Amino acid sequence: MKEASSIKRIVSFICLIAGIGLFVWAMALDFSGADVKYRGWLFILGVIGIIAGLYLFPTLKYHRTIINIIFLFPLLFAFFITVILPMFLGLFYSFTDWNGIEYHNFVGVENYAKMFRQPSFVWSILITALFVVANMILVNLVAFLLALLCTSKLKGMGFFRAAYFLPNLIGGIVLGYIWQFIFANVVTMMTNSLFNVRHSMLANTNTAFAGIVIVYIWQYAGYIMLIYITGLNTVPGDVLEAAAIDGANPVQTLFEIKIPMIAPTITICTFLTLTSAFKQFDVNLSLTNGAGAVPSFMGEFITNGTEMLALNIYSTAITERSYSYAQSKAFLFFVILACVSIIQVRISNKKEVEL
Predict the structure, then answer these.
(1) Is the pLDDT of residue 303 over 60?
(2) What are phi and psi of 294, to 5 degrees?
(3) How many other C-beta atoms can be found within 10 angstroms of the C-beta atom of residue 259?
């Protein structure tokens, strides 16, 4: 038994040492810029060697932890490479004059100071905040009303649930172009016949912003509705029966029983609506592409009256090719979204306790 354990330990150390050596060799070749075709295989073999060494390590006390780490490693590694590392690299590049490939100078907080002197960016923050507030209220209200309808005892509720959820399955780009046609043709014909207004909603900044809100509600309310349906179905039937026996009418049952009992569901839905509305990009891009005139804001004429924050960052990076400046905007966007989300969850949790 001891001999087998010793052999297993030796094999484990050999795999670990070989794996680490191959991994370091592959990374050294990569950073040196050497044109070696087999460095990818060295990297893969190195990772396999490290995992095999950890798996074969004969320490009973920590073996379960080692196995858990091995199984979690692919997910954690992918998350680190695609989320954590780019976030810190983006923060670093925001303090430089990075052009998308390399940087030459550190500029400090110049990019951050510049963005608050740019009227179009400040305007994007304002209309994004307005968009978030409007949609947090309207999407949750519409979704909750639809959930009440779909949890009633009317026939054909399965069809209506599917119909209300269907817009969420359409991609934002496609959805924007569909509604662009609707606003430019169908809605224009209606307003022309009723009010003698012949221009599209998208031709005016205020009505175009309202159009984006309408499309977002139409797309997202069905998804939030399903979450509310799940919450309403968890309300105990005996509680509702007891309320009915006590003489509670439907309105009293709704506000005194159902809404307090689905408070955690309301917290989840408001959080999802807030984060999704903050990150609105595809519908904004395809519906108006941010176009819209604002005659005077911070002393300037603005041509991006419907450009929200995510689209403004995209335009700065892709259209203007100012990558370090876009990185500083993106990091500020992350900070704003994180702070607002934490505050919203804390307030909602307090409300849950009160209810």
Answers:
(1) yes
(2) -125, 110
(3) 17
Beta strands 294-297; 300-302: pairing state? antiparallel
Any alpha helices (H) in 110-204, and if so which ranges? Answer: 110-115, 119-150, 157-165, 172-181, 188-195
Residues in the chain: 355
Q: Side-chain half-sphere of 265: how many Cα atoms within 13 Å?
A: 21
Topology (CATH) of 113-354: MetI-like fold (1.10.3720)
Exposure string over 139-158, b if 16+ CB within 10 A, otherwise e? bbebbbebbbebbeeeeeee
Q: Tokens 């920590």 correspond to what residue? A: 62
| Residue 214, amino acid | I
Q: In b/e form, how buried is each residue of 61-82, taking b as 16+ CB within 10 angstroms?
A: eeeeeeeeeeeeeeeeeeeeee
Residue 123: name the closest of 209, 213, 246 by CA. 209
Query: How far, in Å, CA of 310 to CA of 293, rounded?
Result: 19
Token pair belonging to 141: 């209200």
Instruction: Out of 59-63, 257-261, 316-320, pick the least confident.
Output: 59-63
Residues 297-320: what's their mean pLDDT?
87
pLDDT given at position 137: 93
Domain range summary for the chain, segments of one domain joined by +? 2-108, 113-354
CA-to-CA distance for 40 and 43, rounded, in angstroms? 5
CB count within 10 Å of CB 195 equals 8
pLDDT average, residue stretch 328-335: 91
For residue 142, what pLDDT band results from cuts at 50, 70 and 90?
A: very high
**Does 131 have pLDDT greater than 90?**
yes
If we measure between CA atoms, which residue out of 233, 198, 212, 342 comes closest to residue 284? 212
With tokens 């069809």, the residue in question is: 159
What is the C-alpha separation between 326 and 322, in angstroms, rounded?
6
